[in-house]
């Protein structure tokens, strides 16, 4: 599990390898990740958008941006957390993801970014 705190918002990420399969005559490796967003600040905040960079071992980079996370824009009061699980497909048995969340602080009404630390995606059979 990787963790990082930005402006009082703690991001924790745990990953799983879900398996491999063929799609359009290419092998795909499926990974799951669970993110916990914990508000350790004294202000209420809301997650409005996400930005991801998904990298695989073949130097392919996929950029994903959008509103909220899995259809939600969670509001977190001090001490609250939000956990969700999602996934991605890679064309190699290992890679990584990183990114940031765009959030708003309700006390100051200012927007800010929270870093999602780089986390590795690796199939157990691909690890030395």
From TrEMBL:
PROSITE patterns membership: APAG
One Pfam family linked to the record: DUF525
Location of the ApaG domain: 3-128
Single GO biological process annotation from the record: error-free translesion synthesis
Protein's UniProt name: Co2+/Mg2+ efflux protein ApaG
